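Section 5: illustrative case.
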């Protein structure tokens, strides 16, 4: 419920603070006094877009702030869902700066308009004769039936199942699209993969192959070179090895004369031993070098295949080709495995579809069973409100489509008169009838649902006498379970409020401002009397006012 409303520098208001009570509060005042300003300020708190033109003094900041007691509404999950700090005593504030920029706060935390609009319907519900279109919508009508049917838990179960179904369905659609795209590339990827596999690259040493190819391609030149080298080293008497041995023999004659000479001999001896070993290896290599056209052709074929693959894929090494092969294996394998995953998801989707449909049918049955009672209560209330021949017809049908509210479609037909065929509510009900229907629906809802603060803005327009008394009875009954604020011109309704606020205008130093005060005792009697008989208050009007207040 609203506990406090503070308005500063808004429209004709300089600075007012209103303390609201539980139960029913009557708000009265002359036409043009500024009752609509209160609603405009509240609308700002509920997420309406700010307009600098609504600020009284554009050079000063405009502030609208309300304190709500929300403990009874169980709104913690809603606040968490919208990333808001929850408090049983919640404060909402809107500010319009001189620059025209608007700011919003919930419990002193800056919030977006979207966040504000998400929680607003759970705090305040404003209704006027010109704002009754909501009750003509299918979603709202379904909400009323669900309240009577006690469908809150079942509806939550349905929406959770529907959410899971949609998630699986989205994944299934994405996988099918992925499969369609993958299939376009499957043949090509498979061809590339097989080509790489046939190259048997796992055990290939490209450098060794290239060395073997060079050796086999130049066998004669290599043999010739080794023959020459052996000849250079062994040729008598001028071969390198032979002359080195002669030099060693000569040094051997003097090596014992000095350690330096011994060192020379040792080094030369080591070199000769190394040359002898080298010569033997070269002879062995020479003996084993032979032309092998078949092997040369095999090596060349393998190398050319590697070069072709590297050029084709713009890669430089066998390792990179092997990495590509692995990637292609994953792609091909993934494409082939998609069918299994798709089949699995199709089975899951079907099970979820059946579950959603079953819960939807259960909702449909409970709604169908609740409709007669709703029809009975609404028609009884409208009878009290001067529409004795009003009749409702609820056309509830199952469909194959999933909506947020279930699988049903609903058409609410209405007729206010005997012998007149019921038609769609939004088309056949007049403004006055819609106001009474709205009051009847809210009255019924109040019995089954924890409603937020209800504000009725002159929905009693065009009503008088006994009907006004009945309207007041209904509002009073509703106020026992919730906070009701009613802006009214009817003394019968104003007198029934647990508290009474008056909105009035006053000129101060040639500036018109709107003010608000709580009426009690004699002041309230005079206000009701004035509503009954006009500015000239008679004793009869005062007596009548006292009677109404009692």
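Designed sequence:
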């Amino acid at each position: 419920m609203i506990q406090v409303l503070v308005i500063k520098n808004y429209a004709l208001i300089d600075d007012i603070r209103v303390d609201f009570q539980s139960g029913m509060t009557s708000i009265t005042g002359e036409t043009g006094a500024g009752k609509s300003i209160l609603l405009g300020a509240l609308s700002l708190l509920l997420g309406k877009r700010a307009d600098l033109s609504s600020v009284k003094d554009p050079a000063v900041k405009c502030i609208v702030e309300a304190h709500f007691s929300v403990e009874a509404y169980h709104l913690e999950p809603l606040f968490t869902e919208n990333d808001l700090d929850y408090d049983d005593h919640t404060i909402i504030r809107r500010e319009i700066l001189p620059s025209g920029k608007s700011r919003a706060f919930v419990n002193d935390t800056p919030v977006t308009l979207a966040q504000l609009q998400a929680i607003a319907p759970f705090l305040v519900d404003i209704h006027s004769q010109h704002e009754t279109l909501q009750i003509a919508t299918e979603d709202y009508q379904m909400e009323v039936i669900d309240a009577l049917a006690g469908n809150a838990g079942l509806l939550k179960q349905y929406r959770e199942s529907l959410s899971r179904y949609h998630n699986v369905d989205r994944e299934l659609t994405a996988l099918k699209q992925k499969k369609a795209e993958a299939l376009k590339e499957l043949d090509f990827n498979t061809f590339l993969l097989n080509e790489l596999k046939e190259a048997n690259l796992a055990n290939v040493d490209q450098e060794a192959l290239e060395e073997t190819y060079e050796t086999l391609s130049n066998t004669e030149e290599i043999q010739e070179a080794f023959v020459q080298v052996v000849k250079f080293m062994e040729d008598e008497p001028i071969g390198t090895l032979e002359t080195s041995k002669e030099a060693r023999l000569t040094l051997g004659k003097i090596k014992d004369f000095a350690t330096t000479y011994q060192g020379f001999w040792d080094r030369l001896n080591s070199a000769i031993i190394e040359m002898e070993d080298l010569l033997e290896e070269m002879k062995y290599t020479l003996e084993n070098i032979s032309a092998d056209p078949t092997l040369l052709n095999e090596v060349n074929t393998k190398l050319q295949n590697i070069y072709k693959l590297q050029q084709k894929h713009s890669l430089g090494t066998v390792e990179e080709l092997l990495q590509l092969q692995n990637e292609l294996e994953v792609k091909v394998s993934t494409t082939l495995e998609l069918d299994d995953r798709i089949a699995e998801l199709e089975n899951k989707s079907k099970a979820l579809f059946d579950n959603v449909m079953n819960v939807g049918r259960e909702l449909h049955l409970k709604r169908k069973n609740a409709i007669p009672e709703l029809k009975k209560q609404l028609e009884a209330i409208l009878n009290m409100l001067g529409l004795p021949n009003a009749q409702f017809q609820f056309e509830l049908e199952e469909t194959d489509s999933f909506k947020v509210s279930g699988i049903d479609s609903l058409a609410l037909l209405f007729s206010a008169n005997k012998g007149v065929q019921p038609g769609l509510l939004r088309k056949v009900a007049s403004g006055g009838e819609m106001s009474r229907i709205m009051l009847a629906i809210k009255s019924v809802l109040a019995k089954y649902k924890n409603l937020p603060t209800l504000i009725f803005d002159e929905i009693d327009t065009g009503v008088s006498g006994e009907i006004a008394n009945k309207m007041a009875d209904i509002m009073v009954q509703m106020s026992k379970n919730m906070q009701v604020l009613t802006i009214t011109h009817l003394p019968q309704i104003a007198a029934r409020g647990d508290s009474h606020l008056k909105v009035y205008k006053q000129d101060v130093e040639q500036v018109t401002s709107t003010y608000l005060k709580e009426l009690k005792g004699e002041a309230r009697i005079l206000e009701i009397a004035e509503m009954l008989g006009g500015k000239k208050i008679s004793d009869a009007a005062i007596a009548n006012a006292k009677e109404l207040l009692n």
